[in-house]
């Protein structure tokens, strides 16, 4: 008996002190995950770091402490990430992977570490877009680690395989090459297939479909192929079908409204049915948006305004109610958009111009209003942006139209000034360069005639068989028309996150497991 007691005593006396610290770190992390209170996160970091300091090289549980300390540190420094703090996290993860390399029974933990290391590099990649000096390009390393995690989860029935497929695909889409996009499609389709048969994977199915829609959008930038827009619409419809009634449908409704609008722009045969569907979705989205989230509310306003405007322009007979509602929603969006976005202001100017041309000026929609909003757009748009010249062209067209209506010389002068800017900046190999020169020449001749008393307001602008020169025209006096039109014609393709017409970039489906 005495020998047994001595053995027990020796075990107690020699118990590894790092175990208690590690356990305290695990408990603190659990509290943090439940409450999101920083005091628990600080406690988790402190205890895990203390345990790691004890578990020096050669300690059998050093890999556990490396990983847990790394993830707690990562959560703590996300609010104020630095190159030094991220380097520490990466170093801990890399060492943990080296220690587990020859342990076949630790494949699952290795996959988790690769996943979270990929998440770290992906986050650095996103930060690098804003500060490339502090955070150099890391997308290649994110892909490498996500791919390593996927390779450790080869079984179709592995519950974490869909997560790895989605993570890797998100990074591949961000890298954006043609081959990367092709691989992303393969992975995302497999993820959709795996998740569709598992009720517990419903959130992952939504994530896979969201990222599939984004992949179609990205590939369209390369291909300009209508099939990619069709694919995006189908993915978004599937997302909407999976959403229950309520505000959870709001973002999918806005995204689908915008995608249908894009489809109508490039596939006229679908105008009637697709625009009808888009308007229905847009109205439902705006009804669900109570304005508490200003960003999504502005998106919903712009999406509905754009499809109503498009329906007015593209479908006969013309319904002035569509146009009036579009003007109303554009104005509401501008009132909420503190950035005074030039595309949004230009859109409203175009809608008002069409209202005045097709019907008559009313108190809340005059050519003076159209000019005012176009001038706001010009003021907010950089001069080296191709949109700047299009706004100038639109402004010139409005002034020349007002001159035809009123005969006021000042309108003619302002129209000439606008078209002089268009001609001076328009590349001479542009398809419309000669056309714009012709308009300017006719306007100058009309000004000479007016000053000589030869004519009143009988000025006729030139016409093109291919397209009218109204401000609604998407034609831009630049050489980069095709790609610009795809980007600008999206329902709310504005520069800021607040007015982007695409769904918010999907975050990687990385999972930091409990310690």
Automatic annotation (TrEMBL):
Coiled coil feature spans: none
Superkingdom as given in the UniProt entry: Eukaryota
Sequence segments annotated as region (Disordered): 447-515
InterPro entries membership: TPR-like_helical_dom_sf, TPR_rpt
Bias type Low complexity, positions: 462-476
Compositional bias per record (Basic residues), positions renumbered to this chain: 477-489
Pfam families: TPR_8
UniProt-recorded name of the protein: Uncharacterized protein
């Amino acid at each position: 008996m005495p020998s047994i007691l001595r053995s027990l005593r020796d075990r107690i006396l020699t118990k590894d002190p790092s175990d208690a610290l590690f356990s305290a770190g695990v408990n603190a992390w659990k509290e943090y995950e439940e409450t999101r209170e920083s005091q628990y996160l600080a406690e988790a970091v402190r205890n895990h770091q203390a345990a790691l300091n004890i578990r020096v090289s050669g300690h059998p549980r050093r890999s556990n402490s490396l990983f847990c300390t790394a993830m707690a540190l990562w959560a703590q420094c996300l609010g104020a990430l630095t190159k030094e703090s991220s380097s520490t996290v990466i170093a801990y993860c890399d060492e943990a992977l080296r220690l587990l390399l020859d342990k076949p029974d630790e494949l699952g933990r290795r996959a988790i570490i690769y996943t979270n290391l990929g998440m770290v590099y992906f986050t650095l990649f996103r930060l690098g877009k804003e500060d490339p000096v502090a955070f150099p390009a890391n997308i290649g390393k994110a892909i490498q680690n996500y791919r390593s995690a996927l390779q450790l989860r080869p079984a179709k029935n592995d519950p974490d395989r869909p997560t790895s497929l989605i993570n890797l695909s998100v990074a591949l889409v961000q890298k954006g090459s043609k081959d990367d996009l092709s691989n992303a499609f393969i992975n995302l389709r497999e993820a959709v297939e795996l998740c569709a048969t598992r009720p517990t994977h419903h959130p992952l199915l939504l994530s896979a479909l969201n990222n599939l829609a984004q992949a179609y959008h990205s590939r369209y930038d390369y291909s300009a192929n209508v099939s990619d827009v069709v694919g995006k619409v189908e993915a978004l419809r599937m997302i909407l079908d999976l959403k229950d009634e309520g505000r959870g449908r709001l973002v999918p409704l806005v995204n689908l409204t915008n995608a249908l609008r894009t489809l109508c722009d490039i596939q006229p045969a679908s105008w009637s049915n697709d625009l009808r569907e888009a308007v229905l979705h847009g109205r439902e989205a705006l009804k669900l948006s109570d304005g508490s989230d200003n960003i999504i509310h502005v998106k919903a306003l712009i999406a509905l305004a754009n499809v109503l405007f498009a329906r007015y322009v593209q479908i006969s007979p013309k319904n002035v109610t569509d146009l009036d509602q579009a003007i109303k929603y554009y104005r509401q969006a501008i009132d909420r958009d503190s950035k005074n976005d030039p595309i949004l202001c230009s859109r409203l100017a175009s809608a008002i111009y069409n209202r005045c041309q097709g019907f008559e000026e009313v108190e809340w929609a005059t050519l003076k209003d159209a000019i005012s909003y176009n001038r706001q757009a010009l003021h907010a748009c950089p001069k080296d942006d191709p949109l700047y010249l299009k706004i100038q062209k639109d402004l010139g067209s409005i002034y020349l139209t007002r001159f035809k209506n009123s005969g006021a010389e000042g309108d003619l002068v302002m129209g000439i000034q606008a078209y002089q800017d268009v001609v001076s900046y328009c590349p001479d190999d542009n398809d419309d360069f000669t056309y714009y020169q012709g308009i300017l020449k006719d306007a100058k001749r009309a000004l000479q005639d007016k000053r000589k008393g030869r004519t009143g307001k009988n000025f006729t602008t030139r016409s093109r068989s291919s397209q009218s020169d109204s401000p609604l025209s998407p034609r831009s006096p630049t050489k980069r028309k095709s790609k610009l039109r795809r980007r600008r014609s999206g329902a709310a393709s504005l520069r800021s996150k607040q007015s982007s017409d695409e769904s918010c970039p999907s975050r990687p489906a990385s999972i930091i497991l409990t310690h």
